[in-house]
Amino acid sequence: MNLVLFGPPGAGKGTQSKILQEKRGLPQLSTGDMLRAAVAAGSALGKQVEAILAKGDLVSDEIVIKIIAERYDRPDCAKGAVFDGFPRTIPQAEALDAMLAERKRKIDLVIELKVDESILLARVEQRIRSGQSRTDDNPESLKKRLAVYNRDTAPLLDYYRRQGKLTTVDGMAPVEAVTAAIAAAIEAKLGAKA
Ligand code: AMP
């Protein structure tokens, strides 16, 4: 099964992807994590994207499509994956559909974690207080990331709604309740297939 976890920065995509990875054995494919790892390693890619991440802009579609295809072809994705933070633009979504089609696969379900913007800022502030913040966790960058989300990424909701793949979950509920709602959406999808 191939899932996309969708939502604005701070919606809980990373938390829920990790839970899905543990419970269902579907690897979490987070382009944000991959790019941060490249920055930390000081690789050529890392040097190319470092300033873009710090500002809260999107790196090019070409770069993320390439790293996601390379990652998806590793053997642990044989049964599918959870895409976290990818796709973020319509061309990325189209490229993902094409990449999966070439491999006789498809996106089964897109789960939107819906969260009010006021709560997102509070969550990122919490991440800073708890010492788990990232270099792009500051109010300036968050504002930029939210604006980019609304402009470039939110249109994907319609893209997936039209394909009949979109399920929306209340991302403001406690973590366990969000996990349960996601599990119910997956079970409903699996049931519909059988
Ligand atoms: P995230 O951890 O998903 O919030 O991503 C952190 C940062 O990495 C974003 O603000 C972007 O600069 C970059 N990034 C992550 N995923 C993508 C993507 N799919 N397309 C473009 N840029 C991305």
Can you describe this structure?
It is a single chain. The chain has 194 residues and is an alpha/beta fold. Helices cover 59% and strands 12% of the residues. α2 crosses α3 and α4 runs parallel beside α5. The protein is globular. Bound molecules: adenosine monophosphate. Adenosine monophosphate binds next to α2 and α3. Adenosine monophosphate (AMP) binds next to α2 and α3.
Tally the helices: 9
Radius of gyration: 16 Å
* Succession of helices and strands: EHEHHHEHEHHHEH
- The N- to C-terminal Cα distance equals 14 Å
Averaged pLDDT: 94
Structural class: alpha/beta
Beta-strand portion reads 5-15%
Helix content: 55-70%
Summarize the structure.
The protein is an alpha/beta fold and 194 residues long.
Describe the secondary structure blueprint for this structure.
Layout: E1 2-6, H1 13-24, E2 28-30, H2 31-41, H3 44-55, H4 61-72, E3 81-84, H5 90-102, E4 109-114, H6 117-129, H7 139-153, H8 156-162, E5 166-170, H9 175-193
Parallel strand pairs: 1-3, 1-4, 2-3, 4-5
Helix pairs in contact: 2-3, 4-5
The structure holds adenosine monophosphate.
Keywords:
194 residues, alpha/beta, 5-stranded parallel β-sheet, 9 helices, 5 strands, binds adenosine monophosphate
